[in-house]
Amino acid sequence: MIDPFMALAGRLQTGIVLPLLYRLDLMQWEDIAFGWSLFAVYGLFQVLVTWSISMPLEALYPVERWPGRRVVFTDMLYTLIARVGLLPLVTFVLFYQVQVQVDGFLVDHGWIPPMLERLIPPLFGHPVLTFVAYAVILDFADYWRHRISHIIPAWYSLHALHHAQRQMTFWSDDRNHLLDDFISALWFGLIALLIGISPFQFPLLVLLLRFIESLSHANTRVSFGWLGERLIVSPRFHRAHHALPAAGRESCNYGAVFPWWDMLFGTADFSPVFGPTGDAEAPEALATGGYFAQQAAGIKSLVASFRRARKEPAGSSSAGIRG
Predict the structure, then answer these.
(1) What does the alpha-carbon distance between residue 253 and residue 246 come to, in Å, rounded to a whole number?
(2) Nearest of 279, 244, 251, 249 to residue 265 by alpha carbon
(3) Is the dihedral of CA 292, 249, 185, 6 positive or negative?
(4) 179-195 pLDDT per residue, tens
(5) Which end of the chain is more exposed for a tag (fewer CB within 10 A), N or C?
(6) For residue 192, is it within any domain?
(7) For residue 319, is it within any domain?
């Protein structure tokens, strides 16, 4: 099953990546060009699988039907950039280089690079269990990243781009501001370094978790039942997070893959409601603007947030969240 991906990655490497590196005088990246190409192919495959599952669900059991879908096309662009272009580039190339430097520094100073198996010895010799443990840890970290992005006004001014979509579909998962994505990449990268995830596992983990995240954004009346909703985040569970009553800094259902963290920390909402999505307080450009207009509007919102913070007396900011 791996051979077709390897063959496509080889063609991408020799036909596009290596000639581009040569033209840009960046042949020092030649050794890892195949790795980036492979995960770009994985990303494209993931988009196709997500589309093949989510499209029928949205067509057969939609929450909403819209006369026009122009804003959804912009979300498609976000997805292709994140899954086929930017995501593999950041999560493989940059993470690979950072891990090599960090591990080299630790070894040079007589320290052993961190590994999850050293903290949990029973994981030694069980790669599947280790992979699952990585996924659980990364999802726990993502819960807090997501929750904190709703607490800090400046951060939410960027994250509001994700919540402004009033025509939410499975394409909307990657609808994020570039600065928000950069913060997320640093967050995930730091956690991955601390638990010793290898550069070849890290992008695969992110792509796997993102598949479930994409499905949870689908415009479909799909629920996993009482038990299933408490094991994996469903489209109904996550829609409550995007619904208008929960829009803004006080929200619920922050979990991306597992609802366990919302249940544990008191932010879960299992009510069987499929409400309209969006953020009524977000600038209109974040909802209906094109890609570059949305990115510019996010920067303006960030600047405005800093200005408001300077004008507010110390301690007057309301940072409460649903508990």
Answers:
(1) 10
(2) 251
(3) negative
(4) 998 888 888 888 888 88
(5) N
(6) yes
(7) no
The whole domain housing 157 covers 3-311
Q: What is the model's pLDDT at position 100?
A: 73
Q: From residue 95, how far is each of 100, 308, 310 by CA, in Å?
A: 8, 35, 35
Q: Enumerate the β-bridge partners of residue 277.
A: 243
Q: For position 87, what pLDDT does the model report? A: 63
- Residue 243 β-bridge partners: 277
Beta bridge partners of 9: none
Above 70 in pLDDT, residue 304?
yes
**For the chain, how many structural domains are there in total?**
1
Q: Is residue 32 domain-resident?
A: yes
Tens of pLDDT, residues 52-62: 999 999 999 99
Give Cβ neighbours of residue 71 (< 8 Å, ≥ 6 apart): 165, 166, 167, 287, 288
Query: CA-CA distance, 126 to 3, in Å (whole number)?
Result: 24
237-to-144, 145, 178 alpha-carbon distances in Å = 17, 18, 26
Could you tell me the pLDDT band of residue 323, with boundaries at 50, 70 and 90? very low
Amino acid identity, position 43: G
Q: What is the pLDDT of residues 237-268, one digit of tens each?
A: 999 999 987 666 678 999 999 999 999 999 99
Helix axes 127-151, 202-216, angle to 10 degrees: 60
Task: Indicate whether 318 belongs to any domain.
Answer: no
CA-based R_g, the chain, Å: 20
- CA-CA distance, 323 to 298, in Å (whole number)? 28
- How many residues are listed for the chain in this entry? 323
Strand residue runs (E) in the chain: none
- For residue 179, which of 86, 308, 254 has the smallest C-alpha distance? 86
pLDDT at residue 150 tops 80:
yes
